[in-house]
Description:
The structure is a homodimer. By secondary structure, the first copy, chain A, is of the alpha+beta class. Helix content of chain A is 18%, strand content 25%. Chain A has two domains: 126 residues, Roll (SH3 type barrels); 298 residues, Fumarylacetoacetase-like, C-terminal domain (Fumarylacetoacetate hydrolase, domain 2). Chains A, B: Its cofactor is Ca(2+); Mg(2+).
Amino acid sequence: MTVLNATHDPARRSWIDSANLPGADFPIQNLPFGAFERDGVARAGVAIGEHAVDLQALAGSGLLDAGSDAALACEATRDGTLNRLMAMPHRYASALRAALADLLKSDAPQRARVQQQTDALLPRIDSLALRLPCEVGDYTDFLTSLHHTERHGRYKGLADPLPPAFKSLPIAYHGRASSLRVSGGDVRRPHGQYRDANGQIVFGPAPALDFELELAAWIGQGNAFTQPIAVDDAAAHIFGYSLLNDWSAKSIQWFEQVLGPFLGKSFHSSVSPWIVTSEALAPFRKALAARASDDPPLMAHLHGARDQQEGGLHLELHAHLSTRHLREAGADAVRITHTHLDNLYWTFAQMVAHHTSNGCNLRPGDLLGSGTISGADDAARACITELTNAGRDPLRLPNGETRTALEDGDEIVLSARATKAGAVSIGFGECRGRIAPAFAFASGEAEAAA
Amino acid sequence: MTVLNATHDPARRSWIDSANLPGADFPIQNLPFGAFERDGVARAGVAIGEHAVDLQALAGSGLLDAGSDAALACEATRDGTLNRLMAMPHRYASALRAALADLLKSDAPQRARVQQQTDALLPRIDSLALRLPCEVGDYTDFLTSLHHTERHGRYKGLADPLPPAFKSLPIAYHGRASSLRVSGGDVRRPHGQYRDANGQIVFGPAPALDFELELAAWIGQGNAFTQPIAVDDAAAHIFGYSLLNDWSAKSIQWFEQVLGPFLGKSFHSSVSPWIVTSEALAPFRKALAARASDDPPLMAHLHGARDQQEGGLHLELHAHLSTRHLREAGADAVRITHTHLDNLYWTFAQMVAHHTSNGCNLRPGDLLGSGTISGADDAARACITELTNAGRDPLRLPNGETRTALEDGDEIVLSARATKAGAVSIGFGECRGRIAPAFAFASGEAEAAA
């Protein structure tokens, strides 16, 4: 059963005004972890409103009780990544969030002491170069939306659009860890081999770029090699969640895919910088919907009483698109996707249990993507391939532009919010990326037969 | 053009007798790099005969010129892994190998000084706990044997057993880095979901375990994100090679595979402990065979004049099987595979060029497996699935045992030798693993519907 504590108290406000604004992603009830560079040094931090607590500065501030769990948690981030903190039991990160909440709340006894060190302790987030929050040993991407999977099966003309294994296990593939990047900046259009309109195999800038809106879990404590994690123990191994944009070069993927996605994905994957902790999400847990009566029975190692009771989240997710023309005209980005985590057929606990069921070891900082979170509704289609019915019905923007794929200059921003009556709503920040034109290829742009 | 130097001199012998034995894997011309634990501390080393140079001891021995490239290379391994050395230009590892060859050759001027420190400097390999030679950021597995691919296509009953992309690009998938293990010890039979003989989906110990004989390249210097590596620059990015056994749980793989292999592989992958350097393999380089006239033209970014001239290796590879009964009877392991690197359709330089063609970044210590190195001949089938014609023709051992898959207690040993007239033959050591029975599953062995 989920336990709530003082950090969840909906009455709390912070003396940092931007944390109290309606719709703020990072109120005092959130306090997500991240990393950034400051004065040329990698540091870990905790977001509050439009600011980030610099944990290296905090460690030297004297504001934490020496030897306390909170101080030990803070010390564990000294190398500027969260890996060591993630490897520790939840109570350390929990103690640090509780200590920060006590320092940052409106009626904090130590408010004056903190405010004396504001410049060192609480830089504005927009002044920082954000980094990946940790080193990712392995990145796994799942395929857990039935609607996303069924639609793609229909586009391929399959008699049964759902793979036979879909309802028996959460389908997944190993992703590329080296090409994970934090939100922001350019997403360079990749070169690759694909079939052109005449069916000829060519090599050049990939024409069919897409986004995929996903939620991703960060592994905290790992498991020993050969020792599976039981589904109801999985929560103890998930440190928190971020947004993931699994950028896809569909033309490359369609041609290359024999043993799964490879170069069609590994040119760039974007994650939002702040890890919203499992603890902060506790008030938004919800029970799973009953399995359909004609679904195959759930195997015991994927069934957990606790997971059934609280494996879901009251979480809505969005994607916005802006184009160069829209920005030049001063127009807002257009919301193209509005979906819900309910649209996943499998829970993250089931993904963890399945992933480790063969003895595979997860390590602190590993990333598990949900797969594209598409729903049954048209508005809940979470990639352009689905939004355009595989290109048949182009996406029409308010200024008359149309899209069947992302063009150079197009920018996608993913966002998400957990909301429930009686709790202060929290957000995930944004996962942003803008398509940049392909570089000229060093071996010569024009490919000739050798 | 490959440059040979004094470390390749076939006339050289070592004062360490085991390095001069006929058929020794690690003569003074090889000097491969590895890592091990000694006195509870991770250290890097270089193999010579039945001994390993302890590079931590060497760094403190005064035997290397302070500030020399060799000394800097040695210092770079102080953390007990090779990652930092791999990230340096080839000349550092080359200088260290040359310095070691000068210390270990029969007529070494400093022979007496080295021999005074033999216990510290030159432990026997069999006294050491070997480790993975480096931290692997990402592991990629290719599918580059036409014969392996065609046979599997035929087993599936495909009209065209070769995927359309096979001759246009080296097909690959991302593997799991966390479950890579150094040669030796148990390979625990995994649990997983699969279809039983009645077509029912069940969860239990995987019945159809197989081995796959592969060669794997270790990446040295990486490439910057978005900056592809040209095929003829790839050699500068490959530090060396080891053997890889890509253990496969075929029953799991057949059921799960929608987006490529996942739990059917990630329970354990074994690599041989010693990295045979690209430099040591230089005498064994060979030109590629001409492409078949009906093959599609090779795209320019996969064609390199240097790669065409020396992208191959005079390298034979073997797999031996022993069973519990064979060992109890004191019988030798049975050679079940004898193949050659010629059986790959793509070179490692082409794999590197393809892998980075979309801008994906490789990092020092990344591992690229060749895929199963099966040839056209029956003897050159490099996994049990092929050796048994997908189970139709069981493998018959001299003692009357038969196999269509690996059973508990079965042990596979992979080995390889580079041989060419005029050069001292070098070996790779062994890649060994023994199947151990599945652990009882924590959630309950008997799977019930929930």
